Amino acid sequence: MTIDQSYPRRWAMLPAVLTASFMTLFDFNVVNVAAPSLQHDLHAGPASLELVVGGYAFTYAAGMVTGGRLGDQLGHRRMFLIGITTFAIASLLCGIAQSPGQLVAARLLQGLTGAVMAPQVLALITRTFPAHERPKAMSWFGVTLALGSIAGQVLGGVLIQADLFGLDWRTIFLVNVPVSIVAFIAAVRLLPHHEAPARHRFDVLGAIGLAGSLGLVLFPLILGREQGWPAWLFVMMVAAIPVFVATLWWERRFPEPVLDVGLFRSRAFAVGLPANAAFMAYFGSVFFVLTLLYQAGLHLSALQGGLAFLPLGVVFGLTSVFGRPVVTRLGAWAVSVGALLIALCLVAIIVELHVKGGDISVVWLLVPTAVMGAGSGMAFLSLIGSVLANVAPTQAGAAAGVLTTTQQFASAAGVAILGSIFFAFLGDRSDLTAYAQSTERYFYLALICVLATAVLAALIRRRQPVAPIREPEAQRV
Prior knowledge:
Blueprint: H1 10-42, H2 46-62, H3 64-74, H4 76-95, H5 100-128, H6 134-162, H7 171-174, H8 176-190, H9 204-227, H10 231-251, H11 267-297, H12 302-307, H13 310-322, H14 324-330, H15 333-356, H16 362-388, H17 396-426, H18 432-458
């Protein structure tokens, strides 16, 4: 069978599937601005708040590879529809939660259902768009991710401040329900019917082993700072190594593994994953640290703090759409160019924080963070494209799952590790000078992540194409 990558309704389909990407990123970030309301209304303690934020990240990242592989085996259309339906149900459960425990359980479910639908987005783009149109579709994917991240800060603050129908924080979850219904209706009408292979053997042990090894690392990273880094958390992290090694041993022997190690035969895939990880460690943590500087240091409101990110998000989106010809012309070098542009902005911010100290204001940070958005948009788009360039369509879901898992894991790890270092620098101080100094030191660490991205990206030789990963059986749209 052949693959038809000229699906006539592909551009009409794109907004429907990108809605899923927007919601998953929105819900990843929106709870940050809702934390004070959750403390007041549900009497949620620090541990509960950590789980409300981090529990979503844990199940989302841990389930991503399995969600991608299920899409390859059962059909991306089917798994997308299941994912968006269950995501709406989980969001409803979050919105009606009456206790911290209920909200934590609903957030865990929400992250898991997000992991079902999110990998199908990249897989559907890879399968239905021909090679010459794929960069444009990916640019809209990048815009959606930027909007989702920014909207989590800005729209979340607007919804909470508006207090619609007296629902306070609950609206940030309940808004997903009508959006999911509209997206579901559009997806039913517009998503293509891919033919899945006739026989499947789902890799249960592989799914459990992969999720378990990720959980043994993510759980301590999420709770470590609040718990004071007790010894048992380090034991969990060390235990992740033999669990992951045993999982790889099993995956190499199972005929239809959740984690297809054959993907790593592609140089672009093998080198592109750590490049994505380094980039997302910076990109995820920079929002977290700047939010602390804006709200705790400069005492901006949640809405004002969110609006301070608007220039970054707008420029990121504009670069993703209108900078595509430049990214295409540069090829894999676009990542290094974008990373170096980010590095220059980070250096500028470091200088500003060092010179201004306690006299810093948000105005000083708007221009360098906006230019940072341009570099981030250029690097992010090329990073995704370089990793998935040589992936066979029948493995698109698995590859998208591995890529998205890597990105989310790195983002969560970046927030946990670099955030903990930030708080270590801050200590018991709470004045603006202390926040400015701690942010300055954090940006040195972010600079290392960005430079690592540039170096790794330089190793991806797009001009010397790697033979595509062989697919076991082609499929039709």
